[in-house]
Amino acid sequence: MSTSIRFAIILISTALFVSCKGPAFQKTPGGMPYQLFRSKDTQQARVGNYIKLTLTQQINDSVYFTTGNRLPLYIPIAPQSQPYDISELWTLLHVGDSVAATQMMDTFLKRLPAGNLPPEFKKGDRILTYIKVLGIFENDSLKTIDEKKENEAYASREKGEVEKFIGAKLSSIQRTPAGAYVEITEPGNGDFIKKGEYVSVNYTGKTFAGKVFDSNTDSTFKHMEPLRFSVGVGQMIKGFDDAMPFLKKGGKATIYIPSMLGYGAAPPPGGPIKPYDHLLFEVTVLDVQTKAPDPAK
After folding, report:
1. What angle do CA 132, 6, 51 make, to 5 degrees?
2. In the beta sheet, which residues pair with residue 36?
3. Most buried of 7, 16, 118, 140 (most Cβ within 10 A)?
4. Are residues 191 and 124 in the same domain?
5. 121 and 178 co-located in one domain
6. Which residues have a Cβ under 8 Å from the Cβ of 145 and sit 6 or more positions away?
7. Does the predicted model carry a pTM greater than 0.85?
8. Gap between the Cα atoms of 60 and 57, Å rounded
9. What are φ and ψ of residue 68, in 5° steps?
């Protein structure tokens, strides 16, 4: 699959408003039309570098993905690019440059086997991509340092957003080590859940906007069995997992999860969770066992 299609499926983007006036359209060697808005900066991207950028992609006139004012993207520049693809532009760019590129879905349909495109993409569609280059890093180490700073600043921002949503109840709510929030509504009995123990829970998941996106107590979602998993071994999203040691068997709680402890920029495709949605889960602990049962022979 073309990396341009992978961008449209995977990448998150930022709103960048590019006037239809400006530099004339050019074409990449692979035939992709683009406008390059050149900055005054002289630092140019090279193979092996990382480009830090914001990116918006539209299908026709509708925004499909956007980083908005969220976290930027860090893209490694590979030695080879794909024709008719955004990757053809990487080594042309300087810090501060902006790009507006156009791709036609019919061109992809001619190159890809039938059935390889998601249903959002249709014959005749036009993909518009807008990029703003924020930085260029020579190697992975420098990129990682910058990315860590961005993530720390963004985590602080999310903390403020979640606490504002919780409001006056905040003083009676516990914060987990990773940064989720646990509101105990029924304490339960016995010991607190420990890492490695095997739990069975009922749950309902909602966005902060109130949209129910999953539940095992609502037949609408067609899976009424308890959710079973081992705590603290990475089987669940971080915020959900991190909240379990605050609960006991029979306990009930509401867990408030900042997006970066949930699905962050990459929620399940096609679902109601949007990139960077904060989530809450209403949870009841049905059972706690010391370890997961042995697999059936």
Report:
1. 30
2. 99
3. 7
4. no
5. no
6. none
7. no
8. 9
9. 55, -130
* C-alpha closest to that of 158 among 263, 56, 269, 51: 263
* CATH number for position 15: 3.10.50.40
CA distance 197 to 184: 20
Does the CA dihedral 233-236-241-247 come out positive or negative? negative
Nearest to 243 by CA among 185, 157, 294: 185
CA distance 104 to 59: 10
Contact 22, 37 (CB under 8 A): yes
Residue 150, pLDDT score: 97
Domain presence at residue 156: no
Number of domains observed in the structure of the chain: 2
Q: What is the mean pLDDT of residues 76-82?
A: 95
From CA 197, how far away is CA 291, in angstroms rounded?
5
